[in-house]
Each structure stands twice: as structure tokens, then as C-alpha cells.
Design a protein that fits this description.
Blueprint (H helix, E strand, L loop, with lengths): L12 H6 L5 E5 L6 H14 L3 E6 L4 H6 L10 E2 L11 E6 L2 H12 L2 H9 L1 H9 L3 H16 L4 E5 L8 H13 L2 H13 L3 H20 L1 H33 L3 E7 L3 H16 L4 E9 L9 H10 L27 H30 L5 E5 L8 H12 L2
Parallel strand pairs: 1-5, 1-6, 2-4, 2-5, 6-7, 7-8
Antiparallel strand pairs: 3-4
Bound molecules: adenosine-5'-diphosphate and magnesium ion.
The site of magnesium ion has 6 residues, from helix 2.
Length: about 400
């Protein structure tokens, strides 16, 4: 079998979107590959095909956010007006994830107002909620769980944060658990668990020995912050972890479809490979790979080599000043000039494009060779950034008609 004739299973995105059993779609992949764009495009398409959709975006470009009616980070799904001819009866909501706000909402929902106020004002809480590694990933999970529980939408499309690694999203609940099980937290919370209200007394006794040292090192105020924070937060830890685990399990159910997004570039595809393997280890349902920003040519039958040869032929022959093809009306042109400069430039550009296409195809084939069962959908590179509903529609169309 020659290269390029291997059959790659095609990812049928419309079937996925139309299937009422599909309740959650997670778009993941490394940074900059088109996760946000894909999530928005899929959400729009699903809504225009009749579903009630909410898209949870994380970092939409400002213009894309505006075109979807998202003007502020307020953690509330906002209706996106659909065109009138989309008569299928679907609806689209979109929201931008504000991780600090999501964290705060959890505190407000799970602690009485006094306690909540204390926690929110606590500097340790403030730095934890905005800087704890993986918070954004964790918050995306948390928000997803919340949206799912409302049962207000029949399809939730999730965009994932611009992590260093696509795996961060899956690692978040565990990382949170590790953090909560960490030594410092254990030390601080163990007395509460054992002794309830005797907490502060016990902590003071337990810490008597090391407090002096710790106070010197990190400062009395910080230590007090940590203690206040932990004592106020302790009752919530179980809830946090349980919800993270619930959402993690929800992701494993057949109603979830993971779409790994990648551009046809070595780094993005390597990351996509890791992710595909990880999903299978974690028994998460992978629907397929979306190969985004694939280059195409309107004249794919003209090979790079023939295109270059044709460009060559339009140049004056070196040294003689004569065109090799008299029919082309050669003449005494400068060595690097041609009577047809535009044609030469176009042919060279075409050759470059064809070479790029060949490289992209090889990279895609390497991925498919490593993961033969993974269906693939391709989306052509658009001439411009995707920042309005019309452009999203074009992407949605491309997704379903490879
Ligand atoms: N198929 C495409 N053609 C052209 N531009 C695209 C395409 N897909 C995405 N983009 C652009 O690429 C940039 C990154 O896309 P984005 O969806 O924000 O990536 P991610 O969320 O993975 O970081 C955006 O400016 C977006 O408009
Ligand atoms: Mg993004």
C-alpha cells in the first residue's frame, strides 16, 4: 500500500452533535491550536441543529467574546442570539470562566455568610484561589459539574484552559486532592477532624513547638491567615474533593465526548498523542482528533516539483538571456527577472504550499499510524482569524464536511 492511501476513519461531528446521548463535549489540546474556536463553533452548530447548548469558554479572544455577547467575566451563561433562519428550535448560551469568581461562589454556597466573608477576605485564600497551580483547570471541572447539575442544557461544550500541557485538565482533581492531603494541610486540619470545636486549642498545643520557628520563617500574620483559612475551610474540603471526583467520573460516562484538537505541527500532534493515550488509560471516551488549520490548495494536482519547473521555465535562461522556450516569448531579461514575474511568484508560492501540505500530511499519517482507530476531522486554515458567528459557522461547516 502506498503512503497516503491508508484509510483514516472520519470523525462525524454532526452525528456526535445530533445524538441526544451526547451531553458533554470537551475540547482539549495544547495552547493555541484552536480549542476555544472549536468549542464555540461546535456549540453554535449544535444549537442551530436544534440542541440546547451552553459553551463554557475559558479565554476567548476579545472579539470572539464580543460577537457571542460576552462582555464581562461574570460566570453566568449569556444567551447568544441565533439567526432567524435557524428554525431548528435550538438555543445557545455562552459563558466565560472566571476562576476566582467560581472559587468564591463555592465558598458562598457552602459556608454561612459570616464564615464566607472571613474566608473571602483571607489573604491566604486569595492567593490560593488565584495562584494555586491547576486552579483554572480545577475550576473548569467544578463549573462543568455545576452546569451539568442544573439540567438546564442538553449539551455542554467545554473549552479547556490554555495550560502548558493538555493533561493538566485531567490532572486537576488529583492535584487538588494531593494538595488537600498535603502535609501542611493535614497537620492543620487533623485536629479539627478529630476534635471538632476543640480545634484551636489543639492546634495551639500541637503547634506550640514549631510555631516559633514557622512564625520566624513565614511571619506571624501569614501563620494566622493559614490557620483561619484552614479552620474555616475544613468542612468544605470533603465537598471539594467529592465534587472533583464526581465530575471526573462524569467525564468517564458515555455521554461525554473528548475531542483532541491539534494543528498539523510536530509539537501539537505530540501533545495530542499523549492526550489520546492518557484518555484511554483513564477510560475517558475519546471521540476523535480535530486537525485544525490544515493547509489546502485549489490546484492540488500541480505538484511542487512541476510548479517549480514551470517557474524556472518562465525565467530567462542563465547566461544566455534567452528563454528556454521560445514560445514563451523570452527576451533579454535580467537574470532573476522574468516577463511574467507574477506567474513566477505564484508558481513558487504554490510549490511552497504543496510542500507544506506534504509535510502536514506526513505528520498526520504518523499520528494515525500510532493511533489507527482514532477518527479524524480536518478544518482548513482560514485566511483570517475567527472572531464572529459567521466565521464560527464556516468552521462548524468545515468540521462536518471534511
Ligand atoms: N481554522 C482556523 N483558521 C484560521 N485561524 C484559526 C483557525 N482556528 C483558530 N484560529 C485562530 O487561531 C487563534 C487561536 O485559536 P484559539 O481557538 O484561541 O486556540 P486555543 O483556544 O487552543 O488557544 C485565534 O486567533 C483563532 O481565531
Ligand atoms: Mg483557548
Amino acid at each position: 500500500m502506498s503512503e497516503g492511501t491508508k484509510v483514516v476513519p472520519r470523525l462525524d461531528t454532526d452525528r456526535l452533535l445530533d445524538d441526544p446521548r451526547t451531553r458533554i463535549i470537551v475540547c482539549c489540546g495544547s495552547g493555541g491550536v484552536g480549542k476555544t474556536t472549536t468549542a464555540a463553533a461546535l456549540g453554535l452548530r449544535a444549537a442551530e441543529r436544534g440542541r440546547h447548548v451552553v459553551v463554557l469558554t475559558v479565554d476567548p479572544a476579545r472579539r470572539l467574546a464580543q460577537s457571542m455577547g460576552l462582555s464581562s467575566l461574570d460566570n453566568t451563561p449569556r444567551p447568544v442570539p441565533l439567526s432567524d433562519d435557524a428554525a431548528a428550535g435550538g438555543t445557545l448560551h455562552a459563558m466565560m470562566l472566571d476562576m476566582k469568581r467560581t472559587f468564591d461562589e463555592i465558598v458562598e454556597a457552602h459556608a454561612d455568610p459570616d464564615r464566607a466573608g472571613q474566608i473571602l477576605a483571607n489573604p491566604f485564600y486569595q492567593s490560593l484561589s488565584s495562584s494555586f497551580a491547576g486552579t483554572q483547570e480545577y475550576m473548569a471541572m467544578e463549573k462543568l459539574g455545576q452546569l451539568r447539575r442544573t439540567e438546564q442544557w442538553d449539551l455542554i461544550v467545554v473549552d479547556t484552559p490554555p495550560s502548558r500541557s493538555a493533561l493538566d485538565f485531567l490532572d486537576a482533581p488529583q492535584r487538588l486532592s494531593r494538595f488537600l492531603d498535603g502535609r501542611l494541610i493535614k497537620l492543620l486540619t487533623a485536629p479539627t477532624r478529630a476534635g471538632g470545636r476543640a480545634y484551636l486549642k489543639v492546634v495551639n498545643a500541637g503547634f506550640g513547638m514549631i510555631t516559633g520557628i514557622v512564625t520566624k520563617v513565614i511571619g506571624a500574620q501569614v501563620l494566622r491567615d493559614v490557620q483561619t483559612f484552614v479552620s474555616a475551610f475544613d468542612t468544605m474540603f470533603g465537598g471539594f474533593r467529592e465534587r472533583a471526583e464526581d465530575t471526573y467520573r462524569l467525564l468517564q460516562t458515555p455521554g461525554t465526548a473528548f475531542l483532541v484538537v491539534a494543528t498539523p505541527e510536530p509539537d501539537a500532534l505530540r501533545e495530542a498523542s499523549y492526550f489520546v493515550e492518557r484518555l484511554s488509560e483513564d477510560r475517558m471516551p475519546l471521540a476523535g482528533l480535530i486537525l485544525n488549520r490544515v493547509h489546502r490548495s485549489p490546484a492540488a494536482r500541480l505538484s511542487a516539483a512541476r510548479s517549480l519547473a514551470a517557474a524556472e521555465a518562465l525565467l530567462p535562461a542563465a547566461g544566455t538571456g534567452e528563454s528556454p522556450h521560445s514560445g514563451n516569448g523570452g527576451g533579454a531579461a535580467p537574470a532573476d527577472a522574468s516577463k511574467y514575474p507574477l506567474a513566477v511568484a505564484a508558481l513558487r508560492l504554490h510549490a511552497e504550499r504543496m510542500q507544506l501540505i506534504a509535510v502536514e500530511r506526513r505528520l498526520a499519517q504518523r499520528f494515525t499510524a500510532a493511533h489507527p482507530g482514532v477518527p479524524v476531522a480536518r478544518v482548513a486554515a482560514q485566511p483570517e482569524d475567527v472572531h464572529d458567528l459567521a466565521a464560527l459557522r464556516v468552521i462548524g461547516e468545515a468540521l462536518s464536511h471534511d
